[in-house]
Amino acid sequence: MQWDPKIGWGLVATLFVFVAGYFVRWMLDSIAERRQIHRYYVAVLHEVERNLDGIEKAVAGFPPLAAVNALLAASAAYRPHFISTYSSKIFETNGAMLTTLPSIVANDLIGFYDRLEFIQANVDAFERRASK
Q1: Alpha carbon distance 99, 32 (integer Å)
Q2: Residue 41 and residue 97: Cα distance in Å, rounded?
Q3: Are 84 and 126 in contact (CB under 8 A)?
Q4: How confident is the model over 71-113, as pLDDT tens digits?
């Protein structure tokens, strides 16, 4: 079989365009994925910061433990009212993105939201007892 320049160079050009297009698509997908990961990092960071700010404000407003103990000792009918609110929308809706985090960061993030749920469960339990 002989080399026909018209057909041969046409095939080479077609193959080159295909391979170049494949690598350009791969590069664009890689950039888009990195941007999505970066947006997730920033969003979850802001969510954690808002939650920490809320905890700091709530703790700053707590009366001293001695005052709470004195109130509870005065009468079983007295119950302090606690409010616990936190946001976990970004964390909960992007669970698959946790695999993009370093494992130590992912574990700490999971532990942080687990503690927030624990606090909320305790506040809910305390409020149930208080309403009776």
Answers
A1: 17
A2: 9
A3: no
A4: 878 877 777 677 778 899 999 999 889 898 899 999 999 999 9
At how many degrees (to 10) do helices 5-60 and 103-131 cross?
40
Q: Rounded distance, CA 46 to CA 44, Å?
A: 5
What do you get for the CA distance between the two ends of the chain, in Å? 94
DSSP codes joined into one string, 48-114: HHHHHHHHHHHHHTSPPHHHHHHHHHH-TT-----------HHHHHTGGGGGGS-HHHHHHHHHHHH
Q: Is 4 in a helix, a strand, or coil?
A: coil
In a 10 Å sphere around its CB, with 0-12 CB exposed, 13-18 middle and 19+ buried, how is residue 11 labelled? exposed
